[in-house]
């Protein structure tokens, strides 16, 4: 008489795998211990030092609440807080107010040249905002800006400046236009991936375009809109380069530039700077708490089968006016500033105007071959970004695997720690690493390791979220089969899971590498002349007033970044095709391996 087993296949596989797992307790312990140690060193320790230092006095080193009392009793310290909040709110409003309609036009209508608009908008996404600010200084500086010079030639030499980029309005404008791509990307992705049966059904039942959008489309993308508003707000709150370039010359302080002032004092007020970071942390943490509360009350989901492309909404006579409106963002964020940077970089002395005699490649030769500091910064940027992105993706993927496969008790704690940097502004992370690792016994100040670690920690949430999203689409059956046949967890992960993740890991690497190579606020307190990177070199050179050199270095950084973006898609597709071909033994259609944005 046969006996019917009541064990599930999963439990049977787990029971078979237990002997194999029991044979490698040391390896498991070493891996989990190394991951826990890295998370502690990269996230917990820097944040802990910021919190600890905020309660100490810079003169005596004693415990005190005086730093916080000073913040709320000093008008000179409260003003930057209010200015930062104003800049952040205005940035978020502009980003959502422009990005959401633009995403709807590109994803849901028959707008002409939709792909071109998308590519140009993403070009603004990869452009460092402080480089955009440099381009607009050339265009809209009140005295020497080209647009103001054109205005005076039309309105008369006595006319005042039409534009003044050195103002809060100018900073809001720059922060806003270079934050729009965040909102556009998140909302357009939500619209592209949305199952459209409900919209089609509403149209079939006679609902108009506006009513369908208000009652169906907007509720479904509400989570993306809220997330994009929060991200845009945080960008406006924590940016350092744009306020340093546009507001510092006019004496308008914000929190990030005030933090830089604390480090420039002699002696530097490091403990006061730590306390001054806390309002940024509180505001960002509160925003994420509010998002969770708002979205936790109601969920917007669709229950359907395979989604299909919906009908494009016909704009009719409004098609070309809408196209013209959609081109405004690329015009002000890409075409005009890029043109200004390129023209100035090609002149030997831009104050002499454009002429054949003044055109020269001198500054590019100087940047690439004639100046050792610039050459070192280019090499440092590439090397540090490569190492940081690799460390970040490796750690983020392993943490995502531990969390998704529940490899250890309390695995969710690993994920929580890996996500914490998303609420820590980059300049606060810089302060934390300065506090934690510029003292004995490590004393890493002036070493490449300090910058690599700070970059990796800052962008760890991106790598972790990206790795988790890939693993959610990979079933654990093959891993269980491998372990049931005696393979250990490590070999299974390396031989089964990593190949299955394929081009997704490469796209994740580019997704981390690109923001690292253009990052300024994380590096600003940690660099030395030997560890300068391109962003900090441009920031420092701008103060010297040599705009020709600044523009040449900015163009080189843009070319490197855009070349990497252009290479990301083909490399990802190639990796995916090769992996699929090896598995199937035959040629297959290329998988879509577009770099996530």
Automatic annotation (TrEMBL):
Region (Disordered): 578-597
Cellular compartment(s): Cell inner membrane; Cell membrane
Keywords tagged on the record: Cell inner membrane, Cell membrane, Membrane, Transmembrane, Transmembrane helix, Transport
InterPro entries reported for this sequence: MetI-like, MetI-like_sf
SUPFAM superfamilies in alphabetical order: MetI-like
Pfam family, one: BPD_transp_1
Residues of the ABC transmembrane type-1 domain: 81-291, 378-568
Transmembrane segments: 30-51, 85-107, 119-141, 161-184, 220-246, 270-290, 320-346, 378-401, 413-437, 449-471, 492-517, 547-572
Membrane topology: Multi-pass membrane protein
Record keyword Zinc present: no
Family: Belongs to the binding-protein-dependent transport system permease family.
Classification via PANTHER family: INNER MEMBRANE ABC TRANSPORTER PERMEASE PROTEIN YDCV
Name by which UniProt lists this protein: ABC transporter permease
UniProt organism field: Azospirillum argentinense
